[in-house]
Write a structure and sequence with these properties.
3-oxoacyl-[acyl-carrier-protein] synthase 2, 2 domains, Ketoacyl_synth_C, Thiolase-like, alpha/beta, Peroxisomal Thiolase, Chain A, domain 1, 16 strands, two-stranded antiparallel ribbon, single chain
Length: 432
């Protein structure tokens, strides 16, 4: 791939900023370990969503998820699983980049992790250690801590521990940055890496999104928000983005990692460039803790900001990797945003949602879908949106229902989170 800007400045974009190249990708998902396994399954339209087997689901309204069952899940707590998934994904990305494979990564770590709080099994154990059914008091906790070791729990449930351990494993430089911006977190981690390289603060960044939150407590909480699909049988058909009969998202888990580099540095060391992060756009709004602003303004603004940052217009986008959660409101609002930005072109541009097969991987989603977007560019093949059998007439988009072989140079990857946290990325094969 060429590494020069059309303006004639080597390895700089049209605004004079360093081009940000991608030299390593890693992914772990319910469809498999690594790029090849996940990509093959995606393009074949296989689903990773299945009945949950790792804990009892009796009495739960939703009993399905896209869990990663081929890795150890003990202890079943979000921070431990998130760290495990992040490590696996980062190992693949760093090895592919050939940068810092010996535990000496020459850049910073930006990692999206789920919000951390002590979960019910540990709360119960603490209460029992404090005297059974009585109140949990500070004095009781002191006494329990003196008689039993809670150091491991304390370490596990501190926000930032996952980042510390990943930073130690790969030898990243500086203080690792942990972040949580709801369902846009993975894309935000990439954005922070891009901005740091553009500012000249570093020549490389390891950007990760990871989430291992499929546990009883999370299922109950999302069910109370009426956010989850209850179409448990068959599990594979529950996630149906943009369909008229969609009824909610399906939880998923996994991780993705990207090695970003200043393109000049990557070219100088002879690295293979897998693509570029051309543009990042974000827009927050405080309309509601879970709902989108009804006028779609923040979503529209985030999409436009990513295109403006890339220095391109909507017509330059070849396909959209949609947020596409399969919830009634989010799909409608995303479609509104795409139609506002692309105009008549919204009916032409191919739109796909990986969540139809992976489920919603929450904090990891933006990074996982960025990796899939780059694989789409590399292979010239758009993965399908499965289960799209009953189109929603209110969403007149060009939904890809079978893997489509077409040249792809630029992908818009959308991530929209609870609380109005919206991040969009433009990924490309060549500088804009």
């Amino acid at each position: 791939m060429a590494a020069h800007s059309p303006a004639g400045h080597p390895h700089r974009d049209a605004s004079g900023r360093p081009l940000v190249a991608v030299t390593g990708l890693g992914i772990v998902s319910s469809l498999g370990h690594g790029q090849d396994a996940t990509w093959t399954a995606l393009t074949q339209g296989r689903s990773g969503i299945h009945a949950i087997a790792r804990f009892p689901t009796d009495g739960l309204r939703t009993r399905i998820a896209g869990t990663v069952d081929f890795l150890d899940t003990d202890p079943l707590v979000a921070p431990a699983l998130s760290e495990r998934f992040a490590r696996v994904a980062a190992e693949e990305a760093v090895a592919q980049a050939g940068l810092g494979s010996a535990g000496d990564f020459p850049g910073a770590l930006f990692i999206a992790v789920p919000p951390v709080e002590m979960e019910w099994p540990q709360r119960k154990a603490l209460a029992e250690a404090c005297g059974g059914d009585g109140p949990v008091t500070y004095a009781g906790l002191q006494q329990a801590a003196a008689s039993r070791s809670f150091d491991a729990w304390h370490d596990l449930f501190i926000f930032g521990t996952v980042a510390d351990r990943i930073a130690e494993r790969f030898g990243t430089k500086g203080s690792p940055i942990s972040l949580s911006t709801a369902c846009s977190s993975g894309a935000t981690a990439i954005q922070l890496g891009v901005e740091a390289i553009r500012r000249g603060e570093m020549q490389a960044a390891l950007c990760i999104g990871t989430d291992g939150s499929v546990n009883p407590e999370s299922l109950i909480r999302f069910s109370l928000l009426s956010a989850l699909s209850t179409q448990n049988d068959p599990p594979e058909t529950a996630s149906k983005p943009f369909s008229k009969n969609r009824d909610g998202f399906v939880m998923g888990e996994g991780a993705a990692a990207l090695v970003l580099e200043d393109a000049a540095s990557a070219v100088a060391r002879g690295a293979k460039i897998l693509g570029y992060v051309l543009g990042c756009g974000e827009k927050g709004d405080g309309f509601h803790r879970t709902r989108s602003s009804p006028d779609g303004a923040p979503i529209i603004a985030a999409i436009r900001a990513s295109l403006d940052d890339a220095g391109i217009g909507p017509e330059a986008i070849d396909t959209v990797n949609a947020h596409g959660t399969s919830t009634p409101e989010n799909d409608r609002m995303e479609a509104m945003g795409l139609m506002a930005v692309f105009g008549e072109g919204a009916a032409r541009i191919p739109v796909t949602s990986n969540k139809s097969m992976l489920g919603h991987t929450l904090t990891a989603a933006g990074a996982i879908e960025a990796v899939i977007s780059l694989l789409t560019i590399r292979h010239g093949r758009i993965p399908p949106t499965i289960n799209y059998t009953v189109p929603d007439p209110a969403i007149p988009l060009n939904i890809v229902t079978a893997a489509r072989d077409v040249p792809v140079s630029r992908v818009l990857s959308n991530s929209f989170g609870f609380g109005g946290q919206n991040t969009c990325l433009v990924l490309g094969s060549e500088p804009a």
